[in-house]
């Protein structure tokens, strides 16, 4: 019988499942826990909290933090890097929405 707090097997493929502790997340990315806290304070990522109050991160959040770290390593201040990553994500979402809308219009024979 699985432990009560063990993740369900289906969660292992979920990019948004908070599988990483702060220490593990920092180790995987090769960064410090302080950097993860900084991007959290900047509002770029919001880790979930375990029942004990510990921060837990998803793979998606790790990718976002890694992108911010790339910008910081290039000399961008943390706050600015977080804003850039946020804007990049918004642009990606807008492009996806635009593509989806165009496909729907094309499917209905509407030319724009």
TrEMBL record:
Organism for this UniProt entry: Streptomyces griseofuscus
Record protein name field: MerR family transcriptional regulator
Keyword DNA-binding recorded: yes
Annotated Pfam families: MerR_1
Keyword set, alphabetical order: DNA-binding
Residue ranges of domain HTH merR-type in the record: 19-87
Residues spanning the signal sequence: none
GO MF annotations in UniProt: DNA binding; DNA-binding transcription factor activity
């Amino acid at each position: 019988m699985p432990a009560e707090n063990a993740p369900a097997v289906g969660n292992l493929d979920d990019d948004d499942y908070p599988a990483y502790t702060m220490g593990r997340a920092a180790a995987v990315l090769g960064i410090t826990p302080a950097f993860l806290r900084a991007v959290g304070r900047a509002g770029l990522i919001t880790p979930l909290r375990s029942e004990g109050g510990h921060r837990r991160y998803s793979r998606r959040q790790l990718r976002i933090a890694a992108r911010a770290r790339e910008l910081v390593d290039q000399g961008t201040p943390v706050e600015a890097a977080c804003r850039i990553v946020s804007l990049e994500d918004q642009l990606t979402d807008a492009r996806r929405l635009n593509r989806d809308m165009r496909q729907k219009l094309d499917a209905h024979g509407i030319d724009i």
